[in-house]
Amino acid sequence: MSSCFSIRSHTARGVAFETVVNGIYRATKDAFGKFGITSHMIMCFLRHLPVEDAMKTFEEALPFKDKIVAIGLDSSERDFPPRLFEKVFAFARKHGFKCVAHAG
Fold it and tell me: How far apart are CA 41 and CA 31, in angstroms?
């Protein structure tokens, strides 16, 4: 099972990046310990925000590489196709992240 989350949905409301990641990660560990459910975190970028925001978000995620296994896209694809994010995906791959939605 994978947990896809849009970090900007939380940080835009003033919740710290670290709080969001650590909270979701702790929940995945609790689910395993209590119910045997295995889950991995996929951080998604909001398509309607500028690509530069996705790159900034990814850079903020680098210290949490041990918790976030992949990146993806969230929100409406209309007017915001994956190809717009190809540089972000390439950068993520160079840093060892999996990409669940990729440009190309």
Answer: 13
Q: What kind and span of H or E run contains 70? A: strand 68-74
pLDDT over 60 at 101, yes or no: yes
Over range 43-61, report the average pLDDT.
93
Residue 65: pLDDT band (50, 70, 90) is: very high
Helices (H), 1-104: 7-11, 17-35, 51-61, 86-94
Element (H, E) at 44: strand 40-46
**In the sheet that 2-6 helps form, which strands lie side by side, from edge to edge?**
2-6, 40-46, 68-74, 98-99
